[in-house]
Amino acid sequence: MNSITPFPTPLSTPEQVAFHRTELNVILSLYGRMVAAGEWRDYGISTLKDMAVFSVFRRTAENPLYRIEKHPKLRNRQGQYAVIGMDGQVLKRGHDLRTVLRVLERKLIRAVE
Q: What angle do the packed helices 97-105 and 21-36 form, to 10 degrees?
């Protein structure tokens, strides 16, 4: 007569992939140096079901200059981190985030006149 009906819950909650604090420290360290050099001005972070993306912009209203992506499903294959250029070309992919980000640090090195 007075039976309790449980609230329906989804069978599996979709998880989101996000950057860990140590990963964000590495990325934001590079971001700060590039902002100080005048190369980058804005960023955006997206957490999706299968990947996390850190997008870097020169101006807010533009397409991203670079995307730093984390794909945990590729951890045992090519590596879960990738740097992708404005045109969609993969600039570097690997297992270690610091190694992958070196492709962007080369932009900081300039000839002194």
A: 10
